[in-house]
Design a protein that fits this description.
The protein has 346 residues and is an alpha/beta fold. The protein has helices spanning 4-12, 28-37, 47-53, 59-70, 76-92, 104-108, 114-132, 151-161, 184-192, 207-215, 232-241, 249-255, 266-271, 290-300, 305-318, 323-344; strands at 15-17, 95-102, 135-143, 166-172, 196-201, 221-224, 244-247, 276-278. The chain has an 8-stranded parallel β-sheet. The chain binds zinc ion. Zinc ion binds next to loops.
């Protein structure tokens, strides 16, 4: 149990989210409405039934459901709606900046125009920023199971739309059997295009996948990376190179990447001097919110208030924003923390 002051601190503290999939934020209500409008049949007819679809037994089943539900999202307008609703939800949690991923191959494979998808999403972000002030940027998370060759066409579209607010390039999807190394040329090109680089690694596969992401792809951030805990030399390398782990605690426990809450290595990675951030990943699938992830880090993962502040500052400094904006974000977060803690006396 947290004291009322700590509950209020968690609720009102300024937050930065760096690891979030747009498709994983869809609410059952919106999913149902989009499916109806787009003539997509869901195996459920009401909100409660749709909510129950977000259940799965393992990581493979999670990916299957994720992709099946994404079929209900069809037009640029749908993406705009999702992106806008997400912006309002995050702003209500005191999130001041978020980087949000979309998985392009799911849409390309269904014949959608990726440019329309990106432009719709960015229009939703812009509307949320106008109305509630939250800043949202987009990253493309390319499914590694599709292989490196098809990524070039995706990167081309990103180059054309980058000025509207695309800041990052990532690989995700099924880590098993799809090591990072073959993606090195596409990551070099993404870097040359001015994109920040990250990769899902060390979630399902162990340290080898993380070594590949940092050595061959040159990423500055890792999605999850929690399996680094199995390799002391890797932990040292992450610390020395300042590579940030975007950790998603509930996701890790629910997909089985980490067996139990007590076994979660967040605190040990943090104590080893590795920069870590706290994120919600796919909040609808994991029945969580960013605020809830901070609460669980405090209650179940041994983090203290100072530690939570430190992770938010790490996230602000690791954002794929121009250096001056990153610094301004970190200064704003630090100042808001000081004011809030003084007010609440914690
Ligand atoms: Zn992810």
């Amino acid at each position: 149990m947290l004291t009322p002051q700590l509950e209020e601190l968690i609720r009102r503290m300024p937050k930065v989210e760096l690891h979030l999939h747009l498709e994983g934020t869809i609410t059952p209500r919106t999913l149902l409405e989009l499916a109806r409008r787009n003539g997509v049949t869901l195996p459920a007819a009401d909100e409660a039934g749709v909510a129950a679809l977000f259940r799965y037994r393992d990581f493979g089943e999670f990916l299957d459901i994720f992709m099946a539900l994404a079929r209900a999202i069809v037009s640029g307008e749908d993406f705009e709606r999702l992106a806008y609703e997400l912006g309002l939800d995050l702003a209500a949690q005191a999130v001041c900046y978020a980087e949000v991923m979309i998985s392009p191959m799911q849409y390309i494979n269904r014949g959608l125009d990726l440019r329309e998808v990106i432009e719709g999403t960015l229009a939703g972000f812009a509307r949320a920023e106008r109305e509630v002030g939250i800043v949202l940027r987009l990253a493309l998370d390319y499914g590694r199971q599709y292989g490196p060759d098809r990524a070039w066409a995706v990167l081309d579209v990103v180059r054309q739309t980058k000025a509207l607010g695309v800041v990052g390039w990532s690989i995700g999807g099924n880590e098993i059997g799809h090591p990072p190394e073959p993606f090195a040329p596409i990551f070099a090109a993404a870097r040359a295009a001015g994109l920040g680089l990250m990769a899902h690694a060390g979630e399902v596969v162990g340290p080898a996948s993380i070594w590949g992401a940092i050595d061959a792809l040159g990423v500055s951030r890792l999605g999850h990376g929690v399996r680094a805990i199995d390799d002391p030399a890797l932990m040292l390398a992450l610390r020395e190179r300042g590579i940030v782990l975007d950790v998603c605690p509930s996701s890790n426990v629910l997909t089985g990447a980490v067996e139990t809450w007590p076994a979660h290595p967040l605190r040990r990675l943090y104590d080893a001097g590795i920069p870590v951030t706290i994120n919600s990943d796919d909040p609808t699938f994991f029945a969580t919110t960013l605020s809830e992830e901070y609460r669980r880090a405090l209650l179940r993962l041994g983090m203290g208030i100072d530690d939570l502040c430190a992770t938010v500052l790490t996230a602000a400094r690791a954002a794929f924003l121009p250096p001056a904006q990153r610094t301004a974000l970190a200064e704003r977060v630090a100042a808001e923390f000081r004011t809030l803690r003084a007010e609440l006396g914690v």
